[in-house]
Amino acid sequence: MRYLFPSDYMADPSAHVFGDRLYIYPSHDWESGIPENDNGDHFNMRDYHVLCMDDPDAPEAKDLGKILDVDDILWAGRQLWDSDVVEQGGRYYLIFSLKDKTDTFHLGVAVADRPEGPFTPMPDPIRGSYSIDPCVFKDDDGKIYVYFGGLWGGQLQRYRDNRALESAYLPEGDEPALPARVARMTDDVMQFVEEPRPVVIVDDEGRPLRANDPHRFFEASWMHKYNGTYYFSYSTGDSHLLCYATADNPYGPFRFRGELLQPVVGWTTHHSIVQWRGRWFLFHHDSAPSGGRTWLRSVKVAELQYNADGTLQLK
Ligand code: FUB
């Protein structure tokens, strides 16, 4: 594993290959001066940059500069959290998490003609969107799906059946865990085609993971496909793992398959998985270079390998 961009603090790396180049879309961590709390007030992201690599073994990624600023987004309140990018029809769509002026998270869209931006934001969030951490996945048939959601500061506990609750409800103990959400996107990547559906993760007996399971979903959804199987990977938040689960379709249910990464330095763990030049890579972050400050994270990369039974592990 190695750090890819030591000269600034960046996190939540979403990596994609466009052309023959690898682009990394991270969150950009800034010092906030606010003590760490479960609401995530210590995070202070005000813009996005894009990093790129032309060689998988290059010692560092290159910063191509700022691609979007929070001040350019009409509906913005604060905090640009995790984002992701998909190509459609030769244009590039950045889907991002942002709090509106009432401090409520939604997902927004910004568009560019090139992967390196600049991205122009739409004037309103995606209708019916909520919570954080979008992962945009384009399937082999061209359909585009967005996976999203995050607990605690990510506000997922404020919603049930896609409606805001009067009081947030976080399941406990043996209750089924709160699932991530997935919705197909319109072909112009501007809106959901459908009501978001739950991304249910089940154990080997087909029973949904429970709220007290250290492997249950917390945030940081990622989707990739390998040999026709859909791999949904995610962070377990307060148990600090990256885990994955598989299905034969993009909606699931997904069968829990295992842990991908043990806890790193810092509270959060977050990642993306991408194939590049015949090799598979895990992009993630930790807070070691900042001395463990959760809100100041650094992007890393590690190589992955598949086993004959379809299980996935660090190489
Ligand atoms: O970067 C802010 C938040 O921290 C992300 O949205 C979460 O996934 C966690 O990494």
Brief summary:
With 315 residues, the chain is mainly β. 0% of the residues lie in helices and 45% in strands. Strand 7 and strand 8 (105-112) form a beta hairpin.
- Helix and strand content put the structural class at mainly beta
Which blocks of ≥5 consecutive residues have pLDDT under 50? none
Fraction in helix: under 10%
Q: Judging from the principal axes of the Cα atoms, what is the shape?
A: globular
Could you explain the architecture of this structure?
- By secondary structure, the chain is mainly β.
- It has strands spanning 2-3, 10-18, 21-28, 47-53, 62-69, 78-88, 91-99, 105-112, 120-121, 135-138, 144-148, 159-160, 163-164, 180-184, 197-199, 201-202, 219-226, 229-235, 242-247, 254-261, 271-276, 279-286, 298-306, 312-314.
- The protein starts with a strand and ends with a strand.
- Residues 11-12, 27, 43, 81-82, 97, 132-133, 150, 219-220, 268, 270 line the site of beta-L-arabinofuranose (FUB).
State the main characteristics.
315 residues; mainly beta; five-stranded mixed beta sheet; 45% strand; globular; binds beta-L-arabinofuranose
Break the fold down into its secondary structure elements and pairings.
Elements: E1 2-3, E2 10-18, E3 21-28, E4 47-53, E5 62-69, E6 78-88, E7 91-99, E8 105-112, E9 120-121, E10 135-138, E11 144-148, E12 159-160, E13 163-164, E14 180-184, E15 197-199, E16 201-202, E17 219-226, E18 229-235, E19 242-247, E20 254-261, E21 271-276, E22 279-286, E23 298-306, E24 312-314
Parallel strand pairs: 16-20
Antiparallel strand pairs: 1-23, 2-3, 3-4, 4-5, 6-7, 7-8, 8-9, 10-11, 11-14, 12-13, 14-15, 17-18, 18-19, 19-20, 21-22, 22-23, 23-24
The chain binds beta-L-arabinofuranose (FUB).
